[in-house]
Amino acid sequence: MTESLKSVELKVAGMACAMCARTLEHSLKDLDGTTDAEVNLGNETVRVEYDPTLLKLADLEKAVTDVCCEVVHERITIKVGRMTYAMCVRTIVDALERLDGITGSNVNLSSEKAYVTYNPYMTDGIQDEKSHFGCRIPVPRNREKKMIWNKLCEREN
Asked: HMA domain: from which residue to which, for each copy (predicted)?
């Protein structure tokens, strides 16, 4: 294991009993790259500590869905301006896919919107690193949208 372990919390739905929670916890602990896993049946959450060089968020989510339940994500829409070419769309999608906790994104050139699916518990690093790619992204008022916006800050042309 490396010294740069990550910890993630996942909201899950469909955990029906203590046996399911225990099975899920053991399955996550058995993954190569996890150092700890805790399942909270009452809150329907799972906390996993893992090595990001060996596992990705998608691997952890697959392990959860393979055992018993579904991972709950949040979805936001962000207005994006000054996109003129399909390359702008690709640049924004690529920037979004590099962010921890982003589980899906779709950017629509004609509506000038980015549709982002993400894990609301994975917010570390979203406010301290910025990607510049030349499109105008207005500052949203919603807290979750602001975290994504801070990662995709605007750069004047």
From this structure: 6-72
